[in-house]
Amino acid sequence: MPKHQSSSSATGYNKHQSAKNSQLNAQSQGEYQDHRQQRAPYNRDSNRDNNKKKKKNDKEPAEYRLPKGLSKCKNEIRSLNRLLSSSQLMPSTKRLELERRLKALTLRQTQLSSSKVDKTNASRYHGVKFIERKKILRRLAQIDKKPEEQQVEEVKQEKKSLLVDLNYTSYYPDQV
Fold first, then answer.
1. Helix boundaries (H) for the chain
2. pLDDT tens per residue, range 7-35
């Protein structure tokens, strides 16, 4: 027998192996409970609904949503016009749905194109509006500094017209 082997390992008996064997025997008999068995088992299907990210417009189906962009809206209008003008036979309910969708899309297209024009005008004339507003506010401050005894009908009319001009420069075209 070599020097490095002990007599217990030569016979096949080891204290560590005997402890493992006793745990396995107890586990098979139901006496030993591992700490991992105390937790409820992970159910992948139950957590699947909780982990899904919800979409913004989850309330309505995708076929009823209108496109956000102008080009997508134009493309869909073009395809619906082609579909309705074709000689394909389709049920009247389907044709009615498509016509309603076409009306909604044309309304959406006008809204998007007008908002685009408003945005370009607002950015183009922002500086002009700012300077005009400053002029009007300066003139109103000059009128307010004068004592009220000196304010005659002409000054009141001028103040009124300046306030109208201020509202015009502040709110036209609509701020986008």
1. 7-10, 15-29, 44-51, 70-85, 92-124, 126-145, 153-171
2. 555 555 555 566 556 655 555 555 555 55
State the Cα–Cα distance between residues 58 and 76, nearest whole angstrom: 21
Q: Are 80 and 95 in contact (CB under 8 A)?
A: no
Q: What are phi and psi of 151, to 5 degrees?
A: -75, 120
Q: 11, 32, 10, 5: which is closest to 21 by C-alpha?
A: 32
Quote the tokens at residue 135.
């002029």
The tokens describing 96, both together, are 């009615």
Instruction: Give 59-84 pLDDT, tens digit per residue.
Output: 666 667 888 888 999 999 999 999 99
pLDDT tens readout for residues 104-140? 999 999 988 888 888 888 888 888 889 999 999 999 9
Amino acid at the residue 155: V
Q: Which residue has the tokens 């027998």?
A: 1
CA atoms within 13 A on the CB side of 70: 9
